[in-house]
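--- STAGE predict ---
source: upstream dedup step, 1 unique chain passed
mode: sequence only
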Amino acid sequence: MNTDKRVVVIAGPAGSGKDSIAHALLKRFSNTTLMVTATTRAMRPGEQDGVNYHFFSNERFKKELEIGNIPEHYHRAETDTYYGTYEPDIDRRLASGKVVIAVVQIVGAKYLKEKYNATTIFIMPPSLDAFEKRVRERSPMSDVEWQERLKFTQNEVAHESPWYDYRISNEDGKLEEAVKSLVGILRKEGYNLE
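--- STAGE serialize ---
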């Protein structure tokens, strides 16, 4: 196992603020870079291949899986979409000497911890009311959809978050505090942030 502290996992439920925290870290430290995962979902307006995701067809995704370039993945059944760690991307970023930030699900977090000695951080959602407001503002949904999202999030918090090395609460209006907590953890863990 690689013991050099060069990979950081930031995970959490949709609407927890994990992307905002990751992007704040990228802005603050020039020697950080964001790992870009592979997906089979369609590119949305404004997205770029290799920047937001590596956009693959199902056939290409399966071929990359077969040759070992996607060592872990998950399948979102309701949309028949695949997501996975694209190893050539992370290896290229590590070769540049930067600290790699990975925003992934728990399957990816476990793989990156095992292979790259990643420090894993779970972003806890704010209070239930604040979380519901945040999620519904981001993407309007029916009460049934909200109940499904809530159930999924409660499962993540109850059953997955204890596995992570650290948990950070991201309360509404307190993004800077969450980022400071993350920076403190990374310095304690021996990451070179500059």
